Every structure is written in structure tokens, then in C-alpha cells.
Amino acid sequence: MDIAYDGQGLNGFAYQPEFTTVVGLLRSTITRTLHLDEEPQIVGAGRTDAGVHAFAQVIHVDLPSDFFASRGGPDAQRLVRALNRQLRGRVRILCAYVVDDSFHARFSATWREYRYLVLETAPPALALHETFSWAVAGPLDVDAMNRASEHLLGTHDFRAFCRRPDGSDPDEPLNRLVMSAFWERLADNWQMSPERAPAVRFTIRAKSFCHTMVRSLTSTLVVIGQGKLPETTILERLESHHRDHLPAPAPAGGLSLVGVGYGQFAGGPSGFVR
Prior knowledge:
This protein has 2 domains: about 1-95, Pseudouridine synthase I, catalytic domain, N-terminal subdomain (Alpha-Beta Plaits), CATH 3.30.70; about 110-260, Pseudouridine synthase I, catalytic domain, C-terminal subdomain (Alpha-Beta Plaits, 2-Layer Sandwich), CATH 3.30.70.660. The protein is built from 7 helices and 10 strands.
């Protein structure tokens, strides 16, 4: 399934029995809709933190084969309609396919792509804007931010920009392959930002990401764009692995998962397509 969700009010993607999460909502809704004896396991292409949005998350879920056979064949779209009626927009099923067990939402993925939206306006912005963007004091030097972003390309140890899993060895590298990373200015044609504030967007694609990686890179690059850190900061920290005196990760609301790539499914910003 390709799914989308507004991260506001959700405690992230992964299942947590004591909190409302994307997987929790899907598990309970699928169980209720199909009258299953127990909640199914759901695997996603990646995990998003609380407050982070998705326009093209991809999941797989194993369902009883007789659900399809007893209804005259695989009618995945009927299931999509039934689930969306109950989810009421908190999570949206965009499309669904019946695939064989060689497909794995996480391990079959060849890349993930995120975007982060920044408004150049003096904080605080309206709460409305904070749900989908980060308001910062401008102007931002986008050229400097792009020059700094070039150092991200290729395989690097991102220990300086990631939150290490509990109990892991602090000397263990957190190597990730980044395929593209760039900033661009956006036109606010709908005039949705305060005082027609200019907006800039960071897009980054990697084979995989470690925890808070995109938000940590975003905040550091924004400070570089403000002229408060040198352009060489990214390269220096990739080499030193030290996070000391770097800014805190950018707020979750500005971040969205916008694409997941799969070989035979030709994945793109709208999820995998046929």
C-alpha cells in the first residue's frame, strides 16, 4: 500500500501500544474491517518521528489468502475504500496492490526521499504554519547552503548528525549513502505564508537514513545560510564525527517523506507506480 498522513497529533509511524501511531491506526482498522482474529504485522519503508508527515510512505501487510480468494479474486481497491472511510483522513490509503512474498516494503526499497520546508520570516509564525514548515529569520544564502550540501553526496559516516540507538557502540560508524541533496526557492503563489514570506525547500534522497538525520542536517544548513556557521561545517563534522555546538534538530513539522524507490515498481515521489 502507498499511504499518506498528517503527522500532527500522531506519535510517529511505528507501533506503540500506549500511543496513537500510524501503524497502530492501520492495524486496528484492518483488523476491524476484515474481522481478523489478531492484528496483522505492518512493515514500512521507513519510520517517521512524531509530527513528521508523509505523502508517499509505502507499507506491506500480510493478510489471509482466503480474504481475496473467497471474494472472486484480489479486489484490493475495495479494501482501500473501506479503510479510508474508517480512517477519516488521519491516514489515507492512496493505492494498494496484491504482491507476492518477494516484495518487502523496507528491504526492497532502493532509496527514500524527504523534503523540508522553511519559511524566511521572523519567528514566531502562526501555529498553522508550524504544522508544515519551520519559520526562521532570513534572508538565507541558498547558494551557500547548496555548496555545503554538496559535501553530503556519496557514502559518509553521519554520526555527527544522527541520534544513536540506545545501547549501541558510540564508536560504530553510521554510514549512509546520499544520492542527492539540494535547496531551492519556492514561489508562494497562494500567499499562504505570513507577510508573503519567501520559502525554501530542502530535498534529500538516500538509500536509508538514521534517526534525526534530515532534521539535524536541515538545522545546520539553515544556520550556514544565516551566515552563523562556515560552509565547511558539514565536511568538517562528517570527518570529525563530533556534534558539539551544532544546532538542535529542526522541528518535525517541516519534514515530509515524499518518495520511496523500488526497482521493478519504478518508485517515485508518488510512491511506487505501475
